[in-house]
Write a structure and sequence with these properties.
about 150 residues; mainly alpha; elongated
Length: about 150
Amino acid sequence: MLRLESCVAWGVLIILFVVGKMGVIVNGSVGRGTDAEFNMNCICILSTLLVLPLALQLFLLNTTRGLRRMNKDEALDFYHAWSLIRLLLISLCIAYNLIAYFMTLNATGLLCALMGLCITIYCLPTHRRIREFMDIVENDLVINNN
């Protein structure tokens, strides 16, 4: 399910990119050297530097700290929910960066969007990661029951 959701997020971002290339998002609508361009580029950089690590850290903190009080099914649901939150935060950041790129035609937005896409590749769920997560849950359950 997580892989499908990741593919949907990528699909939406690809559609956004294609829509921008087709000119639906008015390319270059923000003039070069204006305050608006500067502000959009600053927001791109700040969102990339703040939101992306925040999404990763929130996921890590919530999935490791909250395990001790859950059974297997609850832990899987919890993992799924926080994976979706992480994917949503990263996808929104990438979407803003793509829109800023097309509106300013400045490479800053595109570069920040590419960094976000690299993080989504890093966050792709694998059987190994979920199995490791569930091993942690099982070990905590055994320790807490003893």
